[in-house]
Amino acid sequence: MGNKVSTFSEEQLEDLQDSTFFTRKEILMLHKKFRDLDPQLVPKTMLNDEARGVRVAKEKFLKMSEFRENPFKERLLRVFSDDGTGDLCFEDFLYMMSVLSEGAPRELKAKFAFAIYDYDDDGKLGPEDIAMAAAVLTQNQLTAEELEVVVTKVLDEGDIDSDGHLSQAEFEHVISRAPEFINAFHVRA
């Protein structure tokens, strides 16, 4: 009978499971993935405050296969890091992966997609935000005129109150008519 080293306490695992869409096994697998990003920094056991205190640099996450090809990888990391730097602690990482999981509800995905597209962080999607998102989505293949057409069409269709911006509710209405949105807003861990 050997001593089994626990990565998390029973209480921590219950809390992590209650706050995500993951099973215990998936949480432990994601901890291994997180630890593999920087094994010298991330401890095998996170029984104290390590899950919030140990932060892995965003450059390590950018090399992950799940994010390498994602055009919004920088924004994803900034939005999910509690300090806005893109460096993530394990809880930030776990929550991001949970929101991006297939088990997360559409409303939660929409909330974070809105935050990711809100480049100026002003709580609304203005013409500049929409243009930047369109440019990223098309890998900068659109001309300035084509981007202007996209912005105009998005605002014509979605800006219900005609204030020149999309609110969170207006954004959710726009993507509710796009069933492929759910499929595009996830990663497989």
UniProtKB/TrEMBL annotation:
<dbReference type="InterPro" id="IPR018247">
    <property type="entry name" value="EF_Hand_1_Ca_BS"/>
</dbReference>
<feature type="domain" description="EF-hand">
    <location>
        <begin position="105"/>
        <end position="140"/>
    </location>
</feature>
<dbReference type="InterPro" id="IPR011992">
    <property type="entry name" value="EF-hand-dom_pair"/>
</dbReference>
<dbReference type="InterPro" id="IPR051433">
    <property type="entry name" value="CIBP"/>
</dbReference>
<dbReference type="GO" id="GO:0005509">
    <property type="term" value="F:calcium ion binding"/>
</dbReference>
<dbReference type="InterPro" id="IPR002048">
    <property type="entry name" value="EF_hand_dom"/>
</dbReference>
<keyword id="KW-0460">Magnesium</keyword>
<keyword id="KW-0479">Metal-binding</keyword>
<keyword id="KW-0106">Calcium</keyword>
<dbReference type="GO" id="GO:0055074">
    <property type="term" value="P:calcium ion homeostasis"/>
</dbReference>
<protein>
    <submittedName>
        <fullName>Calcium and integrin-binding family member 2</fullName>
    </submittedName>
</protein>
<feature type="domain" description="EF-hand">
    <location>
        <begin position="146"/>
        <end position="181"/>
    </location>
</feature>
<dbReference type="GO" id="GO:0007229">
    <property type="term" value="P:integrin-mediated signaling pathway"/>
</dbReference>
<keyword id="KW-0677">Repeat</keyword>
<dbReference type="GO" id="GO:0000287">
    <property type="term" value="F:magnesium ion binding"/>
</dbReference>
<dbReference type="Pfam" id="PF13499">
    <property type="entry name" value="EF-hand_7"/>
</dbReference>
<keyword id="KW-0401">Integrin</keyword>
